[in-house]
Amino acid sequence: MSSLTRREFVRKTTLVAAAAQLATSLRATSTGSAPAPAAPVRAPDTLHWLEGTPAALPGATWGRPWPRGQHPRDTTFQLQTTDGAAVPLQSWPLAFWPDGSLKWTAHAIPADAPASAEYRITAGSPAAPARPVKVTESAEAVEIDTGVIRAVIGRRGGDLIRTITRDGKEIARAGRLVCQLQNRRDPAAIRVESFTGEIAAVTVEQAGPVRAVVKIEGKHRQTGGPSTGSTSSPQAGSGQSGPRPDWLPFVVRLYFHAGGEMVRVMHTILFDGNAEQDFISGLGVSFTVPLRGELYDRHVRFSGPDRGVFGEAVRGLTGLRRDPGKAVKEAQVAGRATPPLAEWDQRVVERLQYVPAYADWTLLQANADGFQLRKRTHAGHTWLDAAQGQRAGGLGYIGTPAGGVAFGLRNFWQSHPAQFDIRGATGDAATVTAWLWAPDAAPMDLRPYHDGLGMDTFDKQYNGGLEITYEDYEPGFNSPEGVARTSELHLWCLAATLARETLAALQRTLEAPPMLANSPAWLHQCEVFGAIWNPSDRSVPARAAVEDRLAAYFDFYVGQREQRRWYGYWNYGDVMHTYDADRHEWRYDIGGFAWDNSELSTDLWLWLYYLQTGRADVFRFAEDMTRHTGEVDVHHLGRFAPLGSRHNVQHWGCSAKQLRISTATNRRYYFYLTGDERVGDLMREQVEAGRALLKFPPGRKLAFANEQGDQSRGTPTSPDSVGASMGTDWGSLAGAWLTEWERTGDPKMRDRLIASMRTLGAQPKGLFSTGLILNVETGAFEITKSDKVSVSHLNAVFGLVEVCAELIALLDVPAFKTAWLDYCELYNASAEEQTKRLGSALRANGLRQGHARLTAYAAKLKGDPALAQRAWAEFARDWRGRESATGRFPVTRVEGPAVLRPVDEAVFVSTNDAAQWGLAAIQCLALIGEHQPAG
Question: Does residue 407 register a pLDDT over 60?
Fold first, then answer.
């Protein structure tokens, strides 16, 4: 892992990129999808737009790594376009190297930043924005002025956003959270209750000059106070019920950029209800838009598929029996103010009151394949079908030529059921509600999907359910208590109704918010994320074949998400675990074979693949997964917090509540690449997650495993100790401690890591020791008295490899490094070698192909060519011992009547294998690529 000079690095990476482009253009593609186009050749240290120069820039935020020792912690930064124009910049630290120098920084630019395809960031004094964000705090409110809009944020009550003005005119007011709850406490008298978000705390996290961030926390309070017999349970899932005034905690962040007219809203709920009784029938964000002017100058817009726009007026002037005039009609269709009435055909003017005006509009996306747009004149009158289609864009507008609001919900159809309501458009103000869960759809049902099937003992659960459906069931553990969901909304506060083309540009911004990205070459040069990956290199046929298979796996899952409709409010972002070739269907309904829930590090595979390729589509897929797995698959409050749930038909349904799912390691990539505050919260939740293991020991069912499972965990000996595995337990905790230490410099986190590493290195059989007991406060392991060896095939496949690569590079603990290299070398070694070194051969050491990357790591650090050759031999055989192919793989098209609709099938693909193969491929190429066999 010798370092190169910067000049050598730039020269070599440029040559590699050029060679990759040439190889891609010359090589014929295999059966299956075509390879992704080669990335353009860029200087490694430039920043570029992830999806190309944006058509509309609301501001942008991104993360940037730095080589160790390059910049002191108090360094300021400047940004320039490649032609030297200064760009206003706000910067803040995300992480530090052990020497205190900057490791990761985050940066923001304003909405009116100079446009450029590429930028360069260097140490220096930043340019000031022409219209800086100004934040004013008082006891009653927080005021944000971007230079274009001014927002007043309440510190108490139900109005999160009290008002937004532009040029002295109010554009929106009364921005609040709304919830409708279907109370099923009495099945014979189901009732709907209304709640509004109530502010408990407001924190200004950033105050400009380029970017301001306000965090608002609270709960939803019942409108009008608690009512007799209202739904609730004092303790979620307890089965008890009684009146309560509030529930459903929320966290909302509001983002503002200098010179910007858009407010970004990150909306998070945490479910704390009783799944048997509490059925959310509507969940959204509501605000009021003042409307000035005549009804025929009030405009409604909704975006549709393929950049389509639905645009009408509240009172239409086209298609009438009498023609008001060409100029009048053109103005209304375009969204401009119509000419004075004197210029109209007077036959229309005299009869305007007889032209219907439509007060209410609803766009419902009930599922991923259909939306309906309706309008009506008033409540109490019928709805008219205005339009239908498959996938709405998730962007709407209500306003006049004097101003209005465009509102967007990101991943609108992907996170169905979603709905937009405009009410009262014929009055002085319209109420807009962006429903994250549509009230016109069926209520949210979070009850368990079965009644327990008689599995009332551990024996039935282990030797029954696990053996037949792979489901780890336990009564009361299949509760959604504490699961969360984050949604992203955009509010543009506009001075006038936008042209249709401009609205379409906002639609693109909503779908893919502009973000500056680092080149893979720069990320690699900075040696972040363990230096166990390399930028994509197709210059050698054997490497190209592995790269082709990596691309094929990713492209296959993108296609499966679409064909299998892996969408929905609680599902979007996850993928399925295992395939059922007989049904030509993923096992969505079979116990532990359904949703993947990060099993075997699918998240890490995608993120390392993004680092390697820099592909925007990979980033977005990984982003969606990070949002989902960090929120929905983890319990953030209640008795299981902050543990995650193993794979299941329902994301929270498995009784195995585990650190390996909630691990901060899966979130680090997105956090550092974007600076996202919500994901930062999720990682911080995990810092003391070890204490949850005191309540729910991870190996509590292993008594039924006989000698088949991991026997490494010991019996706790103190209130702060827990039996913990070296991999799935400690590896996850180490990821959280490492992240917190990097972010804050907290010596307690560093001391925990060092104590863990030293005591693991001191174990009699190293990392193969059995009976391990961890003190969750100090981080130290007790030295086991057993001389037996133990191993689990799961230890190293949930981020341990990636965490250890970083720890060894950051902390000098020789005993741990030796123990880890021994583990890496011996896991896949022959039984004879294992017996010679450990005293006995290992059992339960499956997933040998995925563990080839451990062998590769040992080969690299030891400089052992023979070990490198062994690693490639291991990589060449799948878990069944069969030769494992590279290159793109064929898929089979299955059509009716065998399936409901045509699908592509590759029966050998499983998500476990794909993730582990992908990680092994990326890391073997990076660590021992020069030893790869030629063919």
Answer: yes
